[in-house]
Amino acid sequence: MAENLPDTNVGNIEYIRKADAVDAVNHALDRETILFSFVRKVAISALKKIAPADAAPVVHAYWIDTENYYRRWRCSACSGHTKEAHPPVCPFCGAKMDGEE
Ligand SMILES: [Zn+2]
Question: Which one in 22, 44, 48, 93 has a CA-CA gap of 20 to 30 Å to 16?
Answer without folding.
Answer: 93
